[in-house]
Amino acid sequence: MSNVNMSRGLPETVLPPAPTDLEQQLQSALAMDGEERRSAIGDVVRRSPTYLAAWAELGDIGRDDIERYAAYRVGYHRGLDQLRQNGWRGSGFVRWSQPSNRGFLRSLDGLRRAAAAIGELDEADRCRTFLSQLDPEMPVGD
Q: In the beta sheet, which residues pair with residue 93?
């Protein structure tokens, strides 16, 4: 006999946590200042280009709107790949309350902000809508 899951509503996808050593490397990088910090975060991204939290941090420290936009966009697209690899099929929740989802959600929110900053208002609106669909309870600023 098969086991049928009679869940209500949309499914929820939770990304697997990053390896502890990557999280530690990123935390060490974030403890640095200035260009040393930037370089150390870049090293984490180079070591593991699929580590979404590192892409979000790289976007956060971007030197200008275009650099931020590029880093957030890479984090967002890498995140979509990971979501699909973990069962997401284009709909369903990806909640902020799950720490392992935050790198992707931060990248998407950063992309929203960076798109608005460079005048890509349609993209900024799409990102805002997507965020609210993924997690209606996640606060999204302006």
A: 12
- CATH of residue 47's domain is 1.25.40
pTM of this structure: 0.91
Q: Rounded distance, CA 30 to CA 2, Å? A: 48
By residue range, what is the domain housing residue 99? 20-134
From first to last of the 142 residues of the chain, give the pLDDT tens digit: 433 334 567 799 999 999 999 999 999 999 999 999 999 999 999 999 999 999 999 999 999 999 999 999 999 999 999 999 999 999 999 999 999 999 999 999 999 999 999 999 999 999 999 999 999 998 877 6
The answer to whether position 81 is within a domain reads yes
Residue 36 carries which side chain, given as an amino acid letter? E
